[in-house]
Amino acid sequence: QVQLVESGGGLVQAVGSLRLSCAASGRTFSSYTMGWFRQAPGKEREFVAFIIRSGGNTNYADSVKGRFTISRDNAKNTVYLQMNTLKPEDTAVYYCAAGVKFSSNSNEYGYWGQGTQVTVSS
User: Fold this and answer.
1) Greatest distance between any 2 Cα atoms in the chain
2) Which residues contact 70 (CB under 8 A, 6 or more apart)?
3) Looking at residue 29, what is its pLDDT?
4) Are 56 and 45 contacting, i.e. CB atoms less than 8 angstroms apart?
5) 51: burial class by Cβ within 10 Å (0-12, 13-18, 19+)?
6) How many of the other CB atoms lie within 10 Å of CB of 43?
7) Predicted local distance difference test score (pLDDT) of residue 1
8) How much helix, strand and coil, in percent to the nearest 5, is found in the chain?
9) Pairing outcome for strands 116-121 and 10-13
10) Residue 26 phi/psi, 5° resolution?
11) pLDDT in the model for residue 54
12) What SS3 class is residue 14?
C-alpha cells in the first residue's frame, strides 16, 4: 500500500500561484506513476497531470497546459504541482494519486490522498 498526503492548498486571487505537495509513504515511491486530479462541486473528477516513475516525462490536461507543472523528487518521496496563472475555474479539491500505468484515467490509479482545497477568487 501507498499512503499519500497532500498539502499546500489555500485561497489565492486569479493569476496568482500556488504549489501543492504530495508526500508518499509505504511501498517504493519511485515504482509508481503519480497523477494529480481535481474535483469541483457538482462535477466529475478530472485529470490534471501525471508524471512517470523516472520523472522524465509528463502529461497535462489541455485546460492547465502551459500554466501548471508537475514534478517529483523520488529521494524525498514527494510529487509537486506548481500552479501558475490561476483562474477561478481552477477552484477544486486537488487529489494526488499513484498508479502503475501511464494514464490520465482516474480508474487506473489505485492509491489516493484525501485532497487539498484550492480556491481561486476573481
Assistant:
1) 41
2) 34, 36, 48, 49, 50, 51, 58, 60, 79, 80, 81, 82
3) 78
4) no
5) buried
6) 9
7) 77
8) 10, 55, 35
9) parallel
10) 110, -130
11) 81
12) coil
One pLDDT digit (tens) per residue for the chain, 122 residues: 789 999 999 999 999 999 999 999 876 778 899 999 999 999 999 999 999 988 789 999 999 999 999 999 988 999 999 999 999 999 999 999 999 888 999 999 999 999 999 999 99
Can you tell me the distance from the alpha carbon of 25 to that of 15, in angstroms, rounded to the nearest whole number? 33
CB 90 within 8 A of CB 20: no
Q: In the block, which residue shows the cell 485529470?
A: 47
pLDDT reported for residue 55: 79
Interatomic CA distance for residues 55 and 47, integer angstroms? 18
How is residue 85 written as a grid cell? 496563472
Q: Which residues contact 76 (CB under 8 A, 6 or more apart)?
A: none
Burial class (CB in 10 A: 0-12, 13-18, 19+), 10: exposed
Report the DSSP beta bridge partners of residue 109: 99
Q: Specify the pLDDT at position 56.
A: 83
For residues 29 and 74, the answer to whether their CB atoms sit within 8 Å is yes
